[in-house]
Amino acid sequence: MPLKLSQKDRQMLEGKYGEAAKLAMTIIVRMAQVLEVDELMDITQAHIDGCGLMSDASLDFAETMARLGGRVAVPTTLNMIPLDLQNWQKQGVPQEFAQRALRMANAYIDMGCIPTWTCAPYQGTLVPRFGQQIAWGESNAIVYANSVLAARTNRYADFFDLCAAITGRVPKCGLHLEENRKGQILFRLVEIPEDLFSDESMYAALGHLIGHIAQDRIPVIEGLPKDITSDQHKALGAAAASAGAVGLYHVIGVTPEAQTFNQAFQGSEPQDIIEIRLADLLAARDELSTLRGADIKVDAIVLGCPHFSFTEFQRLAQLIEEIPERVHSAVRFIVLTNQMTYGLLERSHLLRTITDFGVEIVLDTCVFHSPLLAAKGGVVMTNSGKCAYYAPGELKAKVVFGTMEECVRSAVKGMVDRQEERWGKS
Ligand code: F3S
Fold it and tell me: Atom 2 in ligand 1: which residue has the minimum CA distance?
């Protein structure tokens, strides 16, 4: 199928916009051919996931593009980097690793990217609007942008995200097109106790369950409350995009493209209808833990996967204020966030409360891509469905999934302290 190119596309291919744009456009065109797409389209914003130093190729690619004169053509934010730019020395990150990470950071900054260093860009700078065509990497950010903001992006991979940012072009296909955004599978929540909806870990368990069943189909959820928060969407989407390849979900009566059942399915019928009851949510929650039972010693608590927002810090501070003790000396309590949120924390009274309790706030990075907890094993407790999903493989850790409140109580005791009845068990 011949690919229609604009005059500017052809000029990029000929090298009139420099060598980096030529290479980037060559990759875009090749991808369009592989996808059997006959047209490219403009994007007006990008988010790059390829800055995570996953391999030597990550650094090579960024430095090569920068050396060839690459400049992003659209506003482009950056995902996490493999170290905390302010505190890596204190955290014992090896010099050689740090130098490579810093070189990569500089390459992206030289290309004109915005150094946000966060996997939750949708809760900070440059939030895309309804219908905006964008090219985002990082699965949790993609699903949030598509579902909650109703911006339009495919699940872009590392390196391709930079090519899109440099050219401002992507193949016209997938979730960029209205007709591919219709719901395919209905998840109906049945008789779920109402107070469960106030708990972020319920959303993570629900996302885990939905991702597992939907895989790459577009789920539509019926029965969630209208006042679901940004943080709850974040927990749901991150888990769904980890357990499955979910890039977009709709919530009937809540998300912008699903104000009604008909709108969510664009007038079609669902391919499948799945009822979700409390027992299904409990099973999904339990699946997120690799350790269960009594007397489990905790080595680390990890919150902020995806990066913690200011409102999550407010909730954490509230929980801490209810407890007179500090974090147990044998436990490392890590909260991942970004510089923008940290700036707000510094201006509030929360920072002191949280750090005095013994929390280590880590900026810019992720436990799976920095040497912070690298494959140390042990027991990690988290309220994140995404962290629970990846920790056994990436950190060689045993995992306990719990609510934020349970994480705080467990941190103080040094032992897992969960309240299963909170989830409807007696
Ligand atoms: Fe962010 Fe790392 Fe979790 S990139 S979403 S903190 S796996």
Answer: 366
Q: Would you say residue 426 has pLDDT above 50?
A: no
Long-range contact set of residues 86-90: C-beta below 8 Å, sequence gap at least 24: 86/363, 86/364, 87/362, 87/363
Taking the centre of ligand 1 as the mean of its atom positions, its distance from the CA of residue 240, in whole angstroms, is 14
Evaluate: CB of 122 within 6 angstroms of ligand 1: no
pTM of the model: 0.97
Edge-to-edge strands, sheet with 46-48: 76-78, 46-48, 135-136
Pairing of strands 46-48, 135-136: parallel
The model's pLDDT over 63-84, given as tens digits with 9 standing for 90+, comes to: 999 999 999 999 999 999 999 9
Residue 185 contacts residue 213 (beta carbons within 8 Å): yes
Centroid of ligand 1 to alpha carbon of 367 (angstroms): 7
Cα dihedral 405/408/413/418 (nearest 10) = 30
- DSSP state, residue 398: E
